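We emphasize that the prediction below concerns an isolated chain of 255 residues; any contacts that depend on oligomerization or on bound cofactors are therefore not represented. The input was used exactly as deposited, without trimming of termini.
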Amino acid sequence: MQEIIVNSVPEFVECLGDVNRGKRALYRGQRRDLHLLPKIARLSTTLPVLEAKQAMLNNFKLLSVPYLKEKPANDWEWLAIMQHHGLATRLLDWSVIPLAALWFTVCKPPAENQHGVIWLFQPNPEDYISTFKHEVPFQINKIVLLQPRLITERIKAQWGWFTAHYFDVDTGKFAALDTEAAYISRLTKLIIPPDKFALFRFQLDRLGVNSAQLFPDLEGLCAHLEWLYTNLADEVHGSEKYDLQKVFMPLPKMN
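Result of the prediction step, given as a C-alpha coordinate string:
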Protein backbone atom coordinates (compact mmCIF):
# COMPACT_ATOMS: atom_id res chain seq x y z
CA MET A 1 0.00 0.00 0.00
CA GLN A 2 1.40 3.38 -1.02
CA GLU A 3 1.56 6.19 1.57
CA ILE A 4 2.10 9.83 0.58
CA ILE A 5 2.38 12.95 2.78
CA VAL A 6 0.67 16.08 1.41
CA ASN A 7 0.98 19.58 2.88
CA SER A 8 -1.57 21.73 1.03
CA VAL A 9 -4.68 21.50 -1.13
CA PRO A 10 -2.78 22.23 -4.40
CA GLU A 11 -0.29 19.49 -3.47
CA PHE A 12 -3.20 17.14 -2.73
CA VAL A 13 -4.80 17.78 -6.14
CA GLU A 14 -1.47 17.29 -7.92
CA CYS A 15 -0.92 14.05 -6.03
CA LEU A 16 -4.31 12.71 -7.12
CA GLY A 17 -3.35 13.28 -10.74
CA ASP A 18 -0.15 11.28 -10.25
CA VAL A 19 -1.78 8.43 -8.35
CA ASN A 20 -5.14 8.02 -10.03
CA ARG A 21 -4.56 8.92 -13.69
CA GLY A 22 -8.22 9.01 -14.68
CA LYS A 23 -9.35 5.71 -13.18
CA ARG A 24 -12.54 5.38 -11.14
CA ALA A 25 -11.70 6.09 -7.52
CA LEU A 26 -13.49 6.61 -4.22
CA TYR A 27 -12.23 8.67 -1.30
CA ARG A 28 -12.64 8.56 2.47
CA GLY A 29 -11.34 11.11 4.98
CA GLN A 30 -10.47 10.28 8.59
CA ARG A 31 -9.12 12.51 11.39
CA ARG A 32 -7.34 9.45 12.79
CA ASP A 33 -5.33 6.79 10.98
CA LEU A 34 -7.61 3.87 11.80
CA HIS A 35 -8.49 0.65 10.00
CA LEU A 36 -11.22 0.83 7.37
CA LEU A 37 -13.99 -0.62 9.50
CA PRO A 38 -17.66 0.39 9.82
CA LYS A 39 -18.84 2.08 13.02
CA ILE A 40 -20.65 -1.01 14.30
CA ALA A 41 -17.29 -2.83 14.37
CA ARG A 42 -15.76 -0.13 16.60
CA LEU A 43 -18.45 -0.12 19.30
CA SER A 44 -19.05 -2.23 22.37
CA THR A 45 -22.63 -3.49 22.03
CA THR A 46 -25.04 -4.49 24.81
CA LEU A 47 -26.14 -7.51 22.76
CA PRO A 48 -24.06 -9.78 20.50
CA VAL A 49 -23.07 -7.51 17.64
CA LEU A 50 -25.28 -9.14 14.99
CA GLU A 51 -28.30 -9.01 17.28
CA ALA A 52 -27.61 -5.38 18.17
CA LYS A 53 -27.29 -4.48 14.50
CA GLN A 54 -30.62 -6.10 13.64
CA ALA A 55 -32.35 -4.54 16.65
CA MET A 56 -31.20 -1.05 15.66
CA LEU A 57 -32.47 -1.57 12.11
CA ASN A 58 -35.85 -2.86 13.29
CA ASN A 59 -36.33 0.02 15.74
CA PHE A 60 -35.22 2.60 13.18
CA LYS A 61 -37.83 1.32 10.74
CA LEU A 62 -40.54 1.72 13.37
CA LEU A 63 -39.54 5.10 14.80
CA SER A 64 -38.10 7.07 11.88
CA VAL A 65 -41.13 7.17 9.57
CA PRO A 66 -42.40 10.63 10.71
CA TYR A 67 -39.04 12.14 9.75
CA LEU A 68 -38.74 10.61 6.28
CA LYS A 69 -39.78 12.30 3.05
CA GLU A 70 -39.75 8.98 1.18
CA LYS A 71 -39.94 5.41 2.40
CA PRO A 72 -36.78 3.41 1.62
CA ALA A 73 -37.22 0.69 -0.98
CA ASN A 74 -35.21 -2.04 0.78
CA ASP A 75 -32.88 -2.72 3.69
CA TRP A 76 -29.88 -1.26 1.86
CA GLU A 77 -31.64 2.11 1.68
CA TRP A 78 -32.69 1.88 5.32
CA LEU A 79 -29.05 1.29 6.23
CA ALA A 80 -27.90 4.21 4.05
CA ILE A 81 -30.24 6.64 5.84
CA MET A 82 -29.18 5.28 9.24
CA GLN A 83 -25.53 5.69 8.29
CA HIS A 84 -25.90 9.27 7.09
CA HIS A 85 -27.57 10.26 10.35
CA GLY A 86 -24.91 8.75 12.58
CA LEU A 87 -26.38 5.38 13.56
CA ALA A 88 -23.93 2.48 13.55
CA THR A 89 -24.26 0.10 10.59
CA ARG A 90 -22.07 -2.27 8.60
CA LEU A 91 -21.60 0.49 5.98
CA LEU A 92 -18.52 2.68 5.61
CA ASP A 93 -18.84 6.11 3.93
CA TRP A 94 -16.95 7.02 0.74
CA SER A 95 -17.33 9.80 -1.82
CA VAL A 96 -16.45 10.29 -5.46
CA ILE A 97 -15.47 13.88 -4.54
CA PRO A 98 -11.88 13.95 -3.20
CA LEU A 99 -12.19 17.46 -1.71
CA ALA A 100 -15.22 16.32 0.30
CA ALA A 101 -13.17 13.50 1.80
CA LEU A 102 -10.40 15.98 2.55
CA TRP A 103 -12.86 18.27 4.37
CA PHE A 104 -14.00 15.45 6.64
CA THR A 105 -10.37 14.88 7.57
CA VAL A 106 -9.52 18.46 8.53
CA CYS A 107 -12.85 20.10 9.47
CA LYS A 108 -11.86 19.84 13.14
CA PRO A 109 -8.44 20.18 14.81
CA PRO A 110 -6.28 17.04 14.82
CA ALA A 111 -7.04 14.44 17.47
CA GLU A 112 -4.27 14.25 20.09
CA ASN A 113 -1.88 15.78 17.54
CA GLN A 114 -2.29 12.76 15.26
CA HIS A 115 -2.07 12.97 11.48
CA GLY A 116 -5.17 12.60 9.36
CA VAL A 117 -5.62 10.40 6.31
CA ILE A 118 -7.50 10.33 3.03
CA TRP A 119 -7.94 6.87 1.62
CA LEU A 120 -8.07 6.46 -2.16
CA PHE A 121 -9.68 3.21 -3.29
CA GLN A 122 -9.71 1.98 -6.89
CA PRO A 123 -12.51 -0.60 -7.22
CA ASN A 124 -12.77 -3.39 -9.75
CA PRO A 125 -16.03 -4.21 -11.58
CA GLU A 126 -16.64 -7.28 -9.41
CA ASP A 127 -16.67 -5.11 -6.25
CA TYR A 128 -20.00 -3.49 -7.16
CA ILE A 129 -23.42 -4.85 -6.31
CA SER A 130 -26.94 -3.77 -7.18
CA THR A 131 -29.00 -2.99 -4.09
CA PHE A 132 -32.09 -4.27 -5.87
CA LYS A 133 -30.62 -7.61 -6.94
CA HIS A 134 -29.00 -8.23 -3.54
CA GLU A 135 -31.77 -7.18 -1.19
CA VAL A 136 -30.44 -8.88 1.97
CA PRO A 137 -27.44 -6.95 3.38
CA PHE A 138 -26.77 -9.54 6.05
CA GLN A 139 -25.93 -12.39 3.68
CA ILE A 140 -22.84 -10.94 1.96
CA ASN A 141 -19.61 -12.96 2.28
CA LYS A 142 -17.15 -10.36 1.00
CA ILE A 143 -16.74 -6.57 1.16
CA VAL A 144 -18.91 -5.03 -1.55
CA LEU A 145 -19.40 -1.55 -2.97
CA LEU A 146 -22.76 0.12 -3.53
CA GLN A 147 -24.27 3.47 -4.43
CA PRO A 148 -27.55 4.29 -2.71
CA ARG A 149 -30.32 6.20 -4.40
CA LEU A 150 -29.91 9.91 -3.69
CA ILE A 151 -32.88 9.95 -1.32
CA THR A 152 -31.50 12.49 1.17
CA GLU A 153 -29.92 15.89 0.57
CA ARG A 154 -26.78 14.83 2.43
CA ILE A 155 -26.21 11.77 0.26
CA LYS A 156 -26.77 13.93 -2.83
CA ALA A 157 -24.43 16.74 -1.70
CA GLN A 158 -21.63 14.35 -0.80
CA TRP A 159 -22.16 11.94 -3.73
CA GLY A 160 -21.98 9.17 -1.21
CA TRP A 161 -20.97 5.58 -1.84
CA PHE A 162 -20.55 2.80 0.71
CA THR A 163 -18.52 -0.28 1.28
CA ALA A 164 -20.58 -2.94 3.08
CA HIS A 165 -18.51 -5.17 5.33
CA TYR A 166 -19.21 -8.83 6.03
CA PHE A 167 -19.07 -10.43 9.46
CA ASP A 168 -16.53 -13.25 9.74
CA VAL A 169 -18.13 -15.86 12.00
CA ASP A 170 -14.79 -17.63 12.47
CA THR A 171 -13.08 -14.58 13.98
CA GLY A 172 -16.24 -12.96 15.38
CA LYS A 173 -15.29 -9.67 13.72
CA PHE A 174 -16.20 -7.50 10.74
CA ALA A 175 -13.68 -7.47 7.88
CA ALA A 176 -11.49 -4.38 7.39
CA LEU A 177 -10.90 -3.22 3.82
CA ASP A 178 -7.23 -2.37 4.45
CA THR A 179 -6.39 -5.83 5.80
CA GLU A 180 -8.12 -7.90 3.11
CA ALA A 181 -5.60 -9.18 0.55
CA ALA A 182 -7.97 -8.59 -2.36
CA TYR A 183 -8.04 -4.83 -1.76
CA ILE A 184 -4.70 -3.75 -0.25
CA SER A 185 -2.93 -3.17 -3.58
CA ARG A 186 -5.78 -0.87 -4.70
CA LEU A 187 -5.59 1.43 -1.69
CA THR A 188 -3.49 4.57 -1.34
CA LYS A 189 -3.14 6.45 1.94
CA LEU A 190 -2.62 10.24 1.74
CA ILE A 191 -1.35 11.62 5.04
CA ILE A 192 -2.16 15.13 6.37
CA PRO A 193 0.33 16.32 9.05
CA PRO A 194 -1.44 17.63 12.18
CA ASP A 195 0.10 21.09 11.88
CA LYS A 196 -1.45 21.50 8.41
CA PHE A 197 -5.12 20.92 9.31
CA ALA A 198 -5.91 24.64 9.63
CA LEU A 199 -4.25 25.48 6.32
CA PHE A 200 -6.24 22.79 4.51
CA ARG A 201 -9.46 23.99 6.18
CA PHE A 202 -9.00 27.57 4.99
CA GLN A 203 -7.94 26.58 1.49
CA LEU A 204 -10.95 24.27 1.11
CA ASP A 205 -13.36 26.96 2.28
CA ARG A 206 -12.01 29.33 -0.37
CA LEU A 207 -12.91 26.64 -2.91
CA GLY A 208 -16.46 26.41 -1.56
CA VAL A 209 -15.93 23.16 0.34
CA ASN A 210 -17.28 23.51 3.87
CA SER A 211 -19.96 22.24 6.26
CA ALA A 212 -22.70 24.37 4.68
CA GLN A 213 -22.09 22.78 1.27
CA LEU A 214 -21.63 19.18 2.40
CA PHE A 215 -24.49 19.24 4.93
CA PRO A 216 -27.24 21.18 3.09
CA ASP A 217 -29.48 21.64 6.12
CA LEU A 218 -29.71 23.85 9.18
CA GLU A 219 -27.16 21.76 11.05
CA GLY A 220 -24.59 22.27 8.30
CA LEU A 221 -25.34 25.97 8.01
CA CYS A 222 -24.98 26.48 11.77
CA ALA A 223 -21.69 24.57 11.83
CA HIS A 224 -20.32 26.77 9.04
CA LEU A 225 -21.46 30.04 10.63
CA GLU A 226 -19.96 29.05 13.96
CA TRP A 227 -16.65 28.28 12.27
CA LEU A 228 -16.69 31.60 10.41
CA TYR A 229 -17.06 33.69 13.55
CA THR A 230 -15.00 31.70 16.05
CA ASN A 231 -11.53 30.15 16.09
CA LEU A 232 -10.82 26.46 16.47
CA ALA A 233 -7.97 25.41 18.74
CA ASP A 234 -5.45 25.16 15.88
CA GLU A 235 -6.41 28.48 14.25
CA VAL A 236 -3.92 30.84 15.87
CA HIS A 237 -3.67 33.97 13.75
CA GLY A 238 -0.30 35.50 13.14
CA SER A 239 1.69 32.42 14.15
CA GLU A 240 1.89 30.74 10.73
CA LYS A 241 3.67 31.54 7.50
CA TYR A 242 0.39 31.49 5.61
CA ASP A 243 -2.55 33.83 5.99
CA LEU A 244 -5.49 32.30 7.82
CA GLN A 245 -8.02 35.07 7.28
CA LYS A 246 -11.59 33.84 7.04
CA VAL A 247 -13.81 35.19 4.27
CA PHE A 248 -16.79 36.46 6.24
CA MET A 249 -20.30 36.61 4.89
CA PRO A 250 -21.68 40.12 4.49
CA LEU A 251 -23.77 41.21 7.45
CA PRO A 252 -27.51 41.28 6.60
CA LYS A 253 -29.26 44.63 6.77
CA MET A 254 -31.60 44.89 9.71
CA ASN A 255 -34.85 46.84 9.30
